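Structure request: DUF3757 domain-containing protein, Yersinia kristensenii.
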Amino acid sequence: MKYKLPCLFLFFAPFSALATLHCPAINEIKHGAGVYTAVAADDTEWSGTLQGELPQFGTIKDFSEAMMIVEGSSEEKRGKFQKCTYNLHAEGKQIDMFYENKAWLASISDKPHWKYEQGGFLNYYTCSDVAPEACQFDIVVASATF
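Returned structure:
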């Protein structure tokens, strides 16, 4: 009898987290010929490709920001994770790193470093002025409800 209540809760939870991820640490990003990659915590991959002429100094200097576009209301803190952006040592160059599975929803509920912003036609959250590992998000899927 003592297990019925927790089990019922699982059926009625609207979303469940598959994994908690974060932007790749700078020292975990590998690059060559304009392609940047890093392994994510769930063994998938982050990747980014420089456009145009390859700079002489293509190593990563520092972390710029992460971005998630809001789906639904901003209070839900849920949407499509977009990218992690890093500044390169080459003057004015940046690289955007994208998470391998772009179809899954992300949640930043209880993640303190994300800031809500509105711009043009988009509502989004950004995470900046911290280490990339501090820009955490949960990959979520809709749970079955009965």
